[in-house]
Each structure stands twice: as C-alpha cells, then as structure tokens.
Write a structure and sequence with these properties.
Keywords: Cytoplasm, DNA-binding, Phosphoprotein, Transcription, Transcription regulation, Two-component regulatory system. Its main location: cytoplasm. It comes from Paenibacillus odorifer. One of its GO terms (biological process) is phosphorelay signal transduction system. There is one protein chain. With 509 residues, this protein is of the alpha/beta class. The protein folds into four domains: 107 residues, Response regulator (Rossmann fold, 3-Layer(aba) Sandwich); 149 residues, Alpha-Beta Plaits (2-Layer Sandwich); 112 residues; 90 residues, Arc Repressor Mutant, subunit A (Orthogonal Bundle). The protein is built from 21 helices and eleven strands. The strands form two sheets. Strands 6, 7, 8, 9, 10 and 11 form a six-stranded mixed beta sheet that branches. The protein has a five-stranded parallel beta sheet with strand order 2-1-3-4-5, sandwiched between helices. Helix 10 runs parallel beside helix 12, helix 12 runs parallel beside helix 14 and helix 15 crosses helix 17. The radius of gyration is 34 Å and the shape is elongated. The chain starts with a strand and ends with a helix.
C-alpha cells in the first residue's frame, strides 16, 4: 500500500481530504496529517510517503518552501500535489517548475482528485518498480566486486573497476559494518540512506549471507558515527522485532584495505555471536591477543613432527598447543580457523606427493564430524591428533612409493625446469633409464607425450604472463622456453584456440 500525507492549515480541509476520497481504491493509505509546513517537514522525513498533498499558503513555511527543503534533504523525495485557491493560482504555475507533479484548485472536486490519482498512482508504481530493478542490478555489480576484494583478490584492473563502479577513490578512508540478523538489501538500504549520505554507503552480502556496508567514513566523526549506528540499530530492531548486532571495523585507507576491514568486522561478529551478545561492538575495543605468533608456532612444530614421521611426539605437541589456546582465551572460531589452516597444509602436501587427501579426510570426518561442527577444545584436540597421526603414516607411505617411482621425479623435474631447454633423451640419461621406455612411462602417468606435456606447461605459464605483464610476445616466448616466436604462436593457438595477442586483449577487456 502506498502512503499519502496531507498538509493544510485548515482542519476542515484535512477532514474532507481524509474522508471524501476512497484512498484504498487507488492503492493509498493516509499515513499522517500536518497543520503547518514545519510539522509536515518532520512527518514526511519520518513516514517517507510516496505522495504529499500540500496547501501553498501556510504560515512559517509555505508549501513551495516545504517542497524545496524536502527536495534538498531527501534522497528520494515524494511526489507533490499542491492545493491552491484561485487567487493563488499563479503560485501553482510556479510550483510546477519545482518538481511538483500536479495541482488542485480549492474547493476540491471529487472527480478531479480521483482523476489525478488515477494518473499519478501508476506513475509512482512504475517508478518504484523501475528503481527496484535498477537497485538490484547495481547491487549485483557492487556485491560481486566487494566479494572479490574481501576474498583476497586484488590487482590493478580490479582497483580501477572498483573506483569506476563503486565511485570509491583509491585512497578513500573506509570502514566495514556487518549486521546480524541478516536482512534483504532493499529494506536495509531504505533505513540507512537517511542516516548516512547515499554516496558514502556500499551494501553487500558476503558468501555466507551476512549483510554488510562498506562505509566511506572521512566526513563522519566518531561521535556522529556512534549516534548514527545507535539509530540504525534501534530502527532495524524495531523493524525485525528482535535484537541486532552491529560489528564495526576500524578506519583504514585505500581500496586495498577492504579485505582487512571486512576481516576485522567478521572477527567481531564471530566473537559476539559465539557469546550470544547483541548491540554495537567495535574492533578497536576487542582485547588484543598476545603471543599470536606463538600459537601458530605450536602447529608449525606439530607439522614438523608429521613430516619427520615422529609419531611419539604428536600427542604431546597437540596437548601443548591446546593448553596455550585455553590459557589465552582464544575463541572456538579462531582455533577452528587455525586447525583448518593446518588441515589444508597437510592435504596440500599429500596431493603434491600424488596422494589422495580426500580419502584420509573422509575417514576422519566419519569418526569426528566436520570441523565446523566441533564446538569445544576437547573435540578439536582429538580431531587434530587423529589428523596428524593418519597424515604421518600416509605421508611416509607416499614418500616410499615416490622414491621408487622414477617417473614422479622426472615429472617434478619437467614442472620445475620447463622454461629451460629440455629433451627426453637428456632426462633419460640423467635418470639412468632407456629413453623409449621413459616416453612410454611418461605417457602412461600423465596421459600425454613428453613434448605435448612440456608445451602445455609452457603455454600455461605464457597465459599467466600475458594476463599480468606488459611483456612483448617474443619476450614471453623466450621466458617460457620457446626459442622461436612463430613456433610459440602456432603452439599457443593450437592449445588455447586463439593467438597470444587476441588472448591478451580478451583478458584486458
């Protein structure tokens, strides 16, 4: 239902407008009435009606002054219809030049106002639908860019795209606000744009569905910020009928700091959510944990024991690490993150040695559950100990297999030395094996012949250089191991489907 607000200093006019018109028939409800311009100015900013009917001739603030002020202070002012007597008709014509949509002469005729509403209702509805569609498209683009930045992607092209699309200067002062519970962007946007200048706010939702704002904060002082976020929290809490958490980062400078301020706000969000707290919390107010590197060192020491096949020392290392976590009051979320990093490191090592980390992880998860489901230190410590014990045994087995697997070493050599001049015969002599037999083993292991594999490695490296450097194509050819530029171009087109110059331009676009 659309909202209409009526302004007139004569009570009988207000009464007549409220009762003589079937507002509901035209999709409206009367949200408020005002007896003068000053009262109307306050009520219109509070209720945000889509339509305002206002008398022109009023004391203190007349109708035209009211419209001018609202057009100045509101991001999306309502449609205006002015009410005027015949003597003041010249003012109505002036009003039409001040973003006024129509006028009605007093005494007001039922048919005239119903005809006006028949015209103006679809106009408002179409404009709302158009704005919502535009907002969706803009949000999709902005959200995509912000999520790329908070995930750690950053390069010159992305910075330029951020500046042009988000209208955010490279050296802008910014901060991040995360809001819990999450809510859809349109209602949130409508509640926040009147607190912060529209050009200062960029709304997004991270990949976990959390609602956030990247706020350009240079023009907002700390006291003003405190007052505004308190108003926002109260407004959203009233709308959702439940308590609200606002997690706020520090102020930082530059587009490159978007990931850092997001991680700060996320740290606050995780801690306060875990503690089941609601309210406004700043990253700067969190207790800074000491010996942060010391915590990491425990898992580094643990990883060293895994690589050294030292099964006896794994349990003591796990106990020592978790004793330190408890002593320093680390939250479960922080410990989970460090365990996840250890887990990823181990899985990467297994994959590099031609193992299958998924097999090991499935076995662990069947016994202990997923890492994200382990919500206490004891369960996490058992998970880590089992992970490290299984990994130690598995890595030892893989190492023995790989020591006997010459082809594995040959492939490692090619992966490492592909930029240099490599020949199958030279590798056969280096590894003391018949060149024909080595070629057969190579194809069996990789699914490709030696030259085919070598060229594919070189072309992959060339693609990377074409993306991130301004080197000439001839220089790139030499860098990746091709002595002849024409031969390089032919191979590149054969593998990629286009010549290097086209690939480079496509990537640039």
């Amino acid at each position: 239902m659309l909202k209409v607000l009526i302004v007139d200093d004569e009570p009988w006019v207000l009464e007549g407008l409220r009762t003589m018109i079937n507002w509901e028939k035209y999709g409206f409800e009367v949200c408020a009435e005002a007896h003068n311009g000053s009262e109307a100015l306050r009520l219109i900013q509070e209720y945000k009606p889509e339509l305002v009917l206002t008398d022109i001739n009023m004391p203190v603030i007349n109708g035209l002054e009211l419209i001018a002020k609202l057009n100045e202070v509101m991001t999306k002012p309502p449609k205006f219809v002015v009410l005027t007597g015949y003597d003041d008709f010249k003012y109505a014509r002036t009003a039409l030049q001040q973003r006024v949509n129509d006028y009605l002469l007093k005494p007001i005729d039922d048919e005239e106002i119903e005809s006006l509403l028949s015209r103006i209702t679809p106009m408002i509805q179409n404009e709302i639908a158009s704005n919502e569609e535009l907002d969706k498209k803009q949000f999709f683009v902005v959200n995509n860019i912000v999520n790329r930045l908070i995930q750690g992607e950053y390069n010159e092209n992305l910075e330029l795209l951020t500046q042009s699309t988000l209208k955010l200067q490279a050296n802008a002062e910014i901060m991040c606000i995360l809001i819990e519970p999450a809510m859809s962007i349109n209602p949130l946007h409508s509640r926040i744009v009147d607190y912060f200048p529209k050009e200062c706010t960029r709304f997004f939702q991270d990949r976990s569905g959390r609602t956030g704002i990247i706020l350009e904060s240079a023009s907002i002082g700390n006291e003003s910020l405190d007052a505004i976020v308190n108003q926002i929290r109260s407004d959203i809490a009233e709308h959702l009928h439940e308590p609200v958490l606002l997690a706020i980062s520090t102020r930082m400078v530059g587009i490159c700091s978007i990931r850092e301020i997001y991680m700060q706000a996320l740290d606050v969000w995780k801690r306060k959510t875990h503690q089941q707290k609601r309210g406004i919390f700043y990253y700067s107010e969190l207790r800074v944990l000491k010996k942060k590197e010391h915590h990491k060192d425990h898992f580094k020491q643990l990883l060293d024991k895994v690589l050294a096949n030292d099964l006896e020392q794994i349990q003591p290392c796990v106990k020592e690490a978790f004793a330190s976590f408890v002593e320093n009051l680390l939250t479960i979320e922080i410990v989970q993150a460090q365990v996840a990093h250890l887990e990823l490191t181990i899985c990467t090592l297994i994959a590099q040695m031609n193992g299958t980390p998924d097999t090991m992880m499935i076995k662990i998860q069947q016994e202990y559950g997923n890492l994200g489901e382990l919500n206490d230190y004891f369960a996490l410590s058992r998970y880590v100990q089992s992970l490290c014990m299984l990994a130690t045994v598995y890595l030892s087995e893989l190492e023995q297999q790989n020591e006997q697997n010459t082809i594995y070493k040959v492939i490692q050599c090619v992966d490492r030395e592909f930029r240099n001049k490599l020949k199958l015969q030279d590798l056969a002599r280096q590894f003391h094996i018949n060149s024909t037999y080595l070629g057969q083993l190579f194809r069996k292991q990789t699914g490709q012949g030696f030259s085919e594999y070598l060229n594919a490695k070189r072309i992959e490296e060339a693609k990377s250089l074409l993306k991130r450097t301004q080197l000439k194509i001839s220089d790139i050819a030499v860098q990746v191991g091709f002595s002849n530029t024409d031969y390089f171009i032919d191979k590149f087109k054969l593998i990629v489907g286009v010549v290097p110059s086209v690939y480079k331009n496509e990537n640039k676009n």
